[in-house]
Protein backbone atom coordinates (compact mmCIF):
# COMPACT_ATOMS: atom_id res chain seq x y z
CA UNK A 1 0.00 0.00 0.00
CA UNK A 2 1.48 3.36 -1.04
CA UNK A 3 1.71 5.78 1.85
CA UNK A 4 3.05 9.32 1.66
CA UNK A 5 4.54 10.73 4.83
CA UNK A 6 5.27 14.44 5.00
CA UNK A 7 7.99 16.01 7.12
CA UNK A 8 6.77 19.54 7.81
CA UNK A 9 9.33 22.27 7.30
CA UNK A 10 8.67 23.56 10.85
CA UNK A 11 10.82 20.76 12.30
CA UNK A 12 13.74 22.86 11.09
CA UNK A 13 13.48 24.64 14.45
CA UNK A 14 14.88 21.45 16.02
CA UNK A 15 16.79 19.69 13.22
CA UNK A 16 16.94 19.82 9.39
CA UNK A 17 13.86 18.09 7.91
CA UNK A 18 16.10 16.26 5.46
CA UNK A 19 17.95 14.35 8.20
CA UNK A 20 14.67 12.87 9.43
CA UNK A 21 13.57 12.11 5.87
CA UNK A 22 16.85 10.33 5.19
CA UNK A 23 16.68 8.44 8.50
CA UNK A 24 13.29 7.09 7.49
CA UNK A 25 14.43 6.25 3.96
CA UNK A 26 18.24 6.31 4.06
CA UNK A 27 18.85 4.97 0.57
CA UNK A 28 17.49 8.01 -1.22
CA UNK A 29 18.92 11.50 -1.01
CA UNK A 30 16.31 13.16 -3.26
CA UNK A 31 13.64 15.54 -2.04
CA UNK A 32 11.17 12.67 -2.04
CA UNK A 33 12.48 9.35 -0.76
CA UNK A 34 10.73 6.21 -2.04
CA UNK A 35 10.69 2.97 -0.06
CA UNK A 36 10.38 -0.54 -1.46
CA UNK A 37 6.64 -0.78 -0.79
CA UNK A 38 5.83 2.35 -2.82
CA UNK A 39 5.61 4.60 0.21
CA UNK A 40 7.50 7.85 0.22
CA UNK A 41 8.74 10.48 2.63
CA UNK A 42 8.93 14.10 1.53
CA UNK A 43 9.59 17.50 3.06
CA UNK A 44 6.45 19.66 2.77
CA UNK A 45 5.31 23.16 3.62
CA UNK A 46 2.56 24.50 1.37
CA UNK A 47 -1.11 23.53 1.54
CA UNK A 48 -0.84 21.81 -1.85
CA UNK A 49 2.10 19.73 -0.62
CA UNK A 50 0.18 18.79 2.53
CA UNK A 51 -2.75 17.51 0.48
CA UNK A 52 -0.45 14.98 -1.19
CA UNK A 53 0.34 13.39 2.19
CA UNK A 54 -1.39 10.67 4.17
CA UNK A 55 0.40 11.61 7.41
CA UNK A 56 2.54 14.41 8.74
CA UNK A 57 5.45 14.80 11.16
CA UNK A 58 5.56 18.34 12.52
CA UNK A 59 6.78 20.76 15.16
CA UNK A 60 4.21 23.50 14.54
CA UNK A 61 0.45 23.34 14.22
CA UNK A 62 -1.36 25.05 11.33
CA UNK A 63 -5.08 25.16 10.60
CA UNK A 64 -4.28 23.92 7.08
CA UNK A 65 -3.59 20.50 8.61
CA UNK A 66 -7.30 20.03 9.29
CA UNK A 67 -8.34 20.27 5.65
CA UNK A 68 -5.39 18.43 4.09
CA UNK A 69 -6.94 14.96 4.25
CA UNK A 70 -4.37 13.64 6.74
CA UNK A 71 -5.11 10.48 8.69
CA UNK A 72 -2.36 10.93 11.28
CA UNK A 73 -0.16 13.73 12.66
CA UNK A 74 2.96 13.16 14.75
CA UNK A 75 4.31 15.88 17.03
CA UNK A 76 8.09 15.77 17.42
CA UNK A 77 7.61 17.10 20.95
CA UNK A 78 6.04 15.33 23.90
CA UNK A 79 3.80 18.32 24.60
CA UNK A 80 0.75 18.59 22.33
CA UNK A 81 -1.15 21.40 24.05
CA UNK A 82 -1.02 23.52 20.86
CA UNK A 83 -3.07 20.97 18.86
CA UNK A 84 -6.91 21.31 18.76
CA UNK A 85 -7.99 17.89 20.02
CA UNK A 86 -11.70 18.28 19.28
CA UNK A 87 -11.18 19.43 15.69
CA UNK A 88 -8.69 16.67 14.96
CA UNK A 89 -10.93 14.03 16.47
CA UNK A 90 -13.98 15.23 14.55
CA UNK A 91 -12.04 14.79 11.30
CA UNK A 92 -10.72 11.38 12.24
CA UNK A 93 -7.11 12.56 12.43
CA UNK A 94 -5.03 10.59 14.90
CA UNK A 95 -2.41 12.48 16.90
CA UNK A 96 0.76 10.92 18.32
CA UNK A 97 3.59 12.49 20.27
CA UNK A 98 7.22 11.87 21.18
CA UNK A 99 6.83 11.10 24.85
CA UNK A 100 9.26 8.62 26.33
CA UNK A 101 12.42 9.72 24.50
CA UNK A 102 13.63 12.71 26.50
CA UNK A 103 14.28 11.31 29.96
CA UNK A 104 18.07 11.29 29.68
CA UNK A 105 18.42 14.67 27.95
CA UNK A 106 16.02 16.45 30.31
CA UNK A 107 17.53 14.66 33.32
CA UNK A 108 21.03 15.81 32.42
CA UNK A 109 19.87 19.37 31.74
CA UNK A 110 18.20 19.63 35.14
CA UNK A 111 21.25 18.09 36.79
CA UNK A 112 23.32 20.73 35.00
CA UNK A 113 21.09 23.50 36.35
CA UNK A 114 21.50 22.21 39.90
CA UNK A 115 25.27 21.84 39.59
CA UNK A 116 25.56 25.38 38.24
CA UNK A 117 23.66 26.81 41.18
CA UNK A 118 25.41 24.64 43.77
CA UNK A 119 28.93 25.27 42.47
CA UNK A 120 28.18 28.88 41.39
CA UNK A 121 29.31 28.13 37.83
CA UNK A 122 26.78 30.51 36.29
CA UNK A 123 28.22 33.38 38.29
CA UNK A 124 31.80 32.58 37.25
CA UNK A 125 30.74 32.48 33.59
CA UNK A 126 29.03 35.87 33.86
CA UNK A 127 31.98 37.48 35.63
CA UNK A 128 34.46 35.90 33.25
CA UNK A 129 33.05 37.96 30.38
CA UNK A 130 34.29 41.04 32.24
CA UNK A 131 37.60 39.45 33.16
CA UNK A 132 36.58 39.51 36.83
CA UNK A 133 38.46 37.10 39.13
CA UNK A 134 36.34 36.83 42.24
CA UNK A 135 35.70 34.12 44.79
CA UNK A 136 32.17 33.54 46.06
CA UNK A 137 31.22 34.26 49.63
CA UNK A 138 32.45 31.44 51.84
CA UNK A 139 28.95 30.10 52.53
CA UNK A 140 27.56 30.28 48.98
CA UNK A 141 28.83 27.10 47.26
CA UNK A 142 27.46 23.72 48.27
CA UNK A 143 27.38 20.16 46.97
CA UNK A 144 24.31 18.29 45.82
CA UNK A 145 24.82 15.31 48.10
CA UNK A 146 22.33 15.51 50.95
CA UNK A 147 20.31 18.31 49.33
CA UNK A 148 16.60 17.85 48.66
CA UNK A 149 14.77 17.82 45.33
CA UNK A 150 11.04 17.76 44.64
CA UNK A 151 10.11 16.59 41.13
CA UNK A 152 6.63 17.70 40.08
CA UNK A 153 5.56 15.16 37.48
CA UNK A 154 7.01 11.67 37.51
CA UNK A 155 6.58 10.58 33.92
CA UNK A 156 9.54 9.91 31.63
CA UNK A 157 11.02 13.37 32.22
CA UNK A 158 10.55 13.37 35.97
CA UNK A 159 11.96 9.87 36.38
CA UNK A 160 15.01 10.87 34.33
CA UNK A 161 15.57 13.79 36.69
CA UNK A 162 15.01 11.68 39.81
CA UNK A 163 17.45 8.95 38.76
CA UNK A 164 20.28 11.41 38.21
CA UNK A 165 19.58 13.32 41.41
CA UNK A 166 19.51 10.09 43.39
CA UNK A 167 22.87 9.09 41.88
CA UNK A 168 24.30 12.35 43.25
CA UNK A 169 23.13 11.49 46.76
CA UNK A 170 20.16 13.85 46.82
CA UNK A 171 16.98 13.26 48.81
CA UNK A 172 14.25 13.03 46.17
CA UNK A 173 10.50 13.37 46.64
CA UNK A 174 7.93 13.72 43.89
CA UNK A 175 4.40 14.68 42.93
CA UNK A 176 2.11 12.67 40.68
CA UNK A 177 -1.61 12.02 40.36
CA UNK A 178 -1.32 8.48 41.69
CA UNK A 179 0.95 8.27 44.76
CA UNK A 180 2.39 4.86 43.88
CA UNK A 181 6.11 4.18 44.48
CA UNK A 182 8.62 5.36 41.88
CA UNK A 183 12.25 4.27 41.62
CA UNK A 184 14.75 6.81 43.01
CA UNK A 185 11.96 8.73 44.79
CA UNK A 186 11.75 8.48 48.58
CA UNK A 187 8.16 9.73 48.93
CA UNK A 188 5.39 10.47 46.45
CA UNK A 189 2.76 13.15 47.05
CA UNK A 190 -0.47 13.92 45.20
CA UNK A 191 -1.08 17.29 43.47
CA UNK A 192 -3.18 18.40 46.41
CA UNK A 193 -0.13 18.00 48.64
CA UNK A 194 2.31 20.11 46.61
CA UNK A 195 2.85 22.67 49.36
CA UNK A 196 3.94 19.91 51.74
CA UNK A 197 6.10 18.31 49.04
CA UNK A 198 8.08 21.51 48.33
CA UNK A 199 8.31 22.74 51.92
CA UNK A 200 11.81 21.35 52.53
CA UNK A 201 13.10 21.27 48.94
CA UNK A 202 16.31 23.04 47.90
CA UNK A 203 15.27 22.45 44.28
CA UNK A 204 11.82 22.05 42.74
CA UNK A 205 11.85 20.64 39.20
CA UNK A 206 8.63 21.00 37.21
CA UNK A 207 8.27 18.27 34.58
CA UNK A 208 4.54 17.76 34.16
CA UNK A 209 2.63 18.18 30.86
CA UNK A 210 0.48 21.27 30.37
CA UNK A 211 -3.19 20.34 30.70
CA UNK A 212 -6.28 22.07 32.05
CA UNK A 213 -5.46 20.52 35.43
CA UNK A 214 -1.81 21.59 35.49
CA UNK A 215 -2.15 25.13 34.13
CA UNK A 216 -0.99 27.44 36.92
CA UNK A 217 -0.18 24.44 39.10
CA UNK A 218 2.81 26.26 40.56
CA UNK A 219 1.30 29.53 41.73
CA UNK A 220 1.71 32.04 44.53
CA UNK A 221 0.79 29.61 47.31
CA UNK A 222 3.11 26.87 46.07
CA UNK A 223 6.00 29.29 45.57
CA UNK A 224 5.44 30.78 49.02
CA UNK A 225 5.62 27.28 50.51
CA UNK A 226 9.17 26.83 49.16
CA UNK A 227 12.13 27.77 51.39
CA UNK A 228 13.89 31.07 50.66
CA UNK A 229 16.98 29.02 49.76
CA UNK A 230 15.08 27.12 47.04
CA UNK A 231 15.49 27.18 43.27
CA UNK A 232 12.64 26.57 40.83
CA UNK A 233 13.53 24.60 37.67
CA UNK A 234 10.91 24.49 34.90
CA UNK A 235 11.37 22.12 31.95
CA UNK A 236 7.68 21.44 31.29
CA UNK A 237 5.63 24.29 29.79
CA UNK A 238 5.49 27.95 30.69
CA UNK A 239 1.80 27.77 31.56
CA UNK A 240 2.38 25.34 34.41
CA UNK A 241 4.09 28.09 36.42
CA UNK A 242 2.43 31.41 37.24
CA UNK A 243 5.11 33.72 35.84
CA UNK A 244 3.74 36.82 37.56
CA UNK A 245 3.91 35.11 40.94
CA UNK A 246 7.39 33.79 40.21
CA UNK A 247 8.65 37.24 39.25
CA UNK A 248 7.26 38.66 42.47
CA UNK A 249 9.08 36.02 44.52
CA UNK A 250 12.36 36.66 42.70
CA UNK A 251 12.09 40.45 42.93
CA UNK A 252 11.44 40.20 46.67
CA UNK A 253 14.36 37.79 47.18
CA UNK A 254 11.90 35.18 48.39
CA UNK A 255 13.59 32.51 46.28
CA UNK A 256 17.28 31.86 45.68
CA UNK A 257 16.80 31.66 41.92
CA UNK A 258 15.33 29.76 38.98
CA UNK A 259 16.30 27.89 35.83
CA UNK A 260 13.67 28.31 33.14
CA UNK A 261 13.59 26.52 29.80
CA UNK A 262 9.96 27.31 28.95
CA UNK A 263 7.81 30.43 29.04
CA UNK A 264 4.26 31.59 28.31
CA UNK A 265 5.63 33.64 25.39
CA UNK A 266 8.41 32.13 23.29
CA UNK A 267 10.90 33.30 22.26
CA UNK A 268 11.23 35.12 25.58
CA UNK A 269 10.92 38.86 24.77
CA UNK A 270 14.09 40.92 25.10
CA UNK A 271 12.42 43.17 27.66
CA UNK A 272 11.40 40.29 29.94
CA UNK A 273 12.51 40.84 33.56
CA UNK A 274 13.70 37.23 33.69
CA UNK A 275 16.82 38.18 31.72
CA UNK A 276 17.98 40.56 34.43
CA UNK A 277 18.35 38.29 37.46
CA UNK A 278 21.84 37.12 38.38
CA UNK A 279 20.49 33.83 39.70
CA UNK A 280 18.05 33.05 36.91
CA UNK A 281 19.29 30.77 34.13
CA UNK A 282 17.33 31.10 30.88
CA UNK A 283 17.56 28.43 28.19
CA UNK A 284 15.63 28.61 24.86
CA UNK A 285 13.24 25.64 25.23
CA UNK A 286 16.22 23.41 24.56
CA UNK A 287 16.34 21.11 27.60
CA UNK A 288 15.59 18.07 25.42
CA UNK A 289 18.01 19.02 22.64
CA UNK A 290 20.47 16.35 21.54
CA UNK A 291 22.13 15.53 18.22
CA UNK A 292 20.28 12.20 18.31
CA UNK A 293 16.83 13.82 18.57
CA UNK A 294 15.91 13.05 14.96
CA UNK A 295 16.95 9.40 15.31
CA UNK A 296 14.65 8.97 18.30
CA UNK A 297 11.78 10.57 16.38
CA UNK A 298 12.53 8.32 13.41
CA UNK A 299 12.19 5.20 15.56
CA UNK A 300 8.67 6.18 16.65
CA UNK A 301 7.57 7.38 13.23
CA UNK A 302 8.96 4.33 11.43
CA UNK A 303 6.99 1.98 13.67
CA UNK A 304 3.83 4.06 13.40
CA UNK A 305 4.12 4.26 9.63
CA UNK A 306 4.19 0.45 9.57
CA UNK A 307 1.18 0.33 11.88
CA UNK A 308 -0.73 2.95 9.91
CA UNK A 309 -0.24 1.00 6.66
CA UNK A 310 -1.28 -2.22 8.42
CA UNK A 311 -4.35 -0.60 9.97
CA UNK A 312 -3.10 -1.14 13.53
CA UNK A 313 -3.25 1.12 16.58
CA UNK A 314 -0.43 3.64 16.90
CA UNK A 315 2.15 3.98 19.66
CA UNK A 316 2.10 7.19 21.72
CA UNK A 317 -1.40 7.93 20.45
CA UNK A 318 -2.95 10.95 22.18
CA UNK A 319 -6.26 10.98 20.26
Automatic annotation (TrEMBL):
Pfam families recorded: 2-Hacid_dh (PF00389), 2-Hacid_dh_C (PF02826)
Gene3D superfamilies to which the protein is assigned, alphabetical: NAD(P)-binding Rossmann-like Domain
All copies of domain D-isomer specific 2-hydroxyacid dehydrogenase catalytic, residue ranges: 49-318
Database matches in InterPro entries: D-isomer_2_OHA_DH_cat_dom (IPR006139), D-isomer_DH_CS (IPR029753), D-isomer_DH_NAD-bd (IPR006140), Dhydh_Halo (IPR054891), NAD(P)-bd_dom_sf (IPR036291)
The keyword Glycoprotein is annotated on this UniProt entry: no
Keywords assigned: NAD, Oxidoreductase
Domain D-isomer specific 2-hydroxyacid dehydrogenase NAD-binding: from-to ranges: 111-287
Taxonomy, superkingdom: Archaea
Gene Ontology MF: a single term: NAD binding
Oxidoreductase keyword on record: yes
Xref: NCBIfam families: Dhydh_Halo
Family the UniProt entry places it in: Belongs to the D-isomer specific 2-hydroxyacid dehydrogenase family.
Protein name: D-2-hydroxyacid dehydrogenase (NADP+)
Natural source organism: Halorubrum aquaticum
Amino acid sequence: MAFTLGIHESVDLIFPPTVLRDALDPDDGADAADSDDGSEVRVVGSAAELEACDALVTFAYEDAFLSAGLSWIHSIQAGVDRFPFDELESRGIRLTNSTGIHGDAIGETVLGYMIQFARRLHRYRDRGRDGEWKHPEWDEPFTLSGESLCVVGLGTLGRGIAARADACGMEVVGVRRTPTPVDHVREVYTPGEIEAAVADARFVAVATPLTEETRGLIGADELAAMPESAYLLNVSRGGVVDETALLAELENDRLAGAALDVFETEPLPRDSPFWGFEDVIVTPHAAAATRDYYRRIADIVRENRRRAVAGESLVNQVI
